[in-house]
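Objective 1b: paired records.
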Amino acid sequence: MGVFEAPENLTGHEQVVFCQDKPSGLKAIIAVYSTALGPALGGTRFYPYASEEEAVHDALDLSKGMAYKNSLAGLDLGGGKAVIWGDPETDKSEALLRAYGRFVESLNGRYITACDVGTYVHDMDIVAKETRHATGRSVENGGAGDSSVLTAYGVFCGMRAAAQHRYGTADLTGRTVGVAGIGKVGRHLVTHLIEAGAQVVATDVSEKAHDWLSANHPQASFVDSTEKLIASDIDIYAPCALGGALNDDSVAALRAKIVVGAANNQLAHPGVEKLLADRGILYAPDYLVNSGGVIQVADEIHGFNFDRAKRRASKIFDITGQILRTADTEGVPPAVAADRLAERRMAECGRLRSIHLPQS
């Protein structure tokens, strides 16, 4: 697949940059979907893709999602994403991360990076040695720290809004929530849910995740596969691992009546949103409810203040409710209602950037 011949749902990108530094082993792709609202902000995923085509597809897909996410979050930022092709456990090095940082810097601010799957706060500290355009750095280095904190909080807010819409109350006491993926975000989300009085059933491929759950929340249950989780008697399903969790098979097997999770690109293909609606399953779009992390790192650009960022992330409750009500009114799935709102803001506010301003 050539970049210019990408599938229709992945076209429209402004720029795709292939970055290579052979001595360090860096092979990276930076995809800028849109700068209509401002510089493209999105994390860096470090992952051992099976092929270059798979890496390109992920970069294109994720960067488009970031444009919509940033728009819905009310940020004056566009959407971009980077992927580093390799195994973070064996291929990551200071030289590789610094080489990547120089490529980010070469874009002169069109793309602002942050953490994602396979990259962490200390990695962004290293990347930031070579670029001014890295967020998600450590607090010690003037950054916002771990963005999974507000990502999980935003998902929790979105989940409460979905419960309000479905059940008439945002109270999660006694509700059973199935969490697939107990990683950086999933762990914070599980803690929020336990504190809110929910019953948690979780799964993860990592034995360490199971050990963490047993040690920190022994009242939670653990099952050994996502297939068992979605087929269990749960009220709410929270996909918090990699994308594509909602497909024809998983939707058919799902017993939950609400889906609200942290994973990006949960819908495996166009049309899954209709399958969910046809089954009476309320789906809160992933790029809406998981936007707390990008709100956190975006706040870092102007000097980070956690309380200010958390107040902004708490508005995910309100916008989720608005989108769910709009979807009912217009007779469309929530994912369609969310897309329309994001696209309208990109078009209406992005248009203003064509008005010439004098140089200061």
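Objective 1b, second protein:
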Amino acid sequence: MDHSNVIRLLDVVDNDKALHLVLEYMDVDLKKFMASSPDIAKNQQVIKSLMHQLLDGLAYCHSQKILHRDLKPQNLLIDCKSILKLADFGSAREIGVPLHRYTEGEMVASLWYMAPELLLGSRKYSTPVDIWSAGCVFAEMVIQQPLFTGYTELTQVIKIFSIMGKPNEETWPGVTLICDFLDAFVRNEPQNLAELVLGLEPAGVDLLSKMLCMNPEGRITASEALEHPYFDDILESP
């Protein structure tokens, strides 16, 4: 892949015992950036710039039929010029046509950034899983801590439901076919995201809500997100 917001592979070295990938140098990952430069990381224009770059790289990956499947702050690298690049494609895979049913044991995404369809047991999924993860990263940049913090798949589902609301056939057609134990969860109504991501402008809250749509079919795409009004001042700047 060749994109300004995707890490470049410079060389591959095979010494018979191991395969070494030589990648371009980046200064820090997003997790360390937020921890070491909290004042800068909280700047709304910085967040907006980094999110635009994240989505730009993600839109490119999806256009190349590639799912990243492990988007999280540790896998987003930043250089001294504040250029962000998607990295660590160890869990990535090509999107099948038609979509393949992936094995239950496949490791996809770190728990706090994992899309609800994966947590509920869906073995057929596509680009919306990356959009959900990107939305989690977006929220984390604003509030400087992860939005959904479960410690098992079950507690992660409960955490998501407590904030985004428990889905049903009306809000997510087909969800009961994915998860036949949905009735076991307590019914929760969605919370107001604006109250959870304080400081984020209304357009940003709207974009975040579209990225964290529970129904993957209703989730915004990376290309659509790039055209969202939240980024208007970036797109209009010289």
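The longest helix spans residues 44-63. Strands lie at 9-14, 19-23, 28-29, 66-67, 76-78, 84-86, 93-94.
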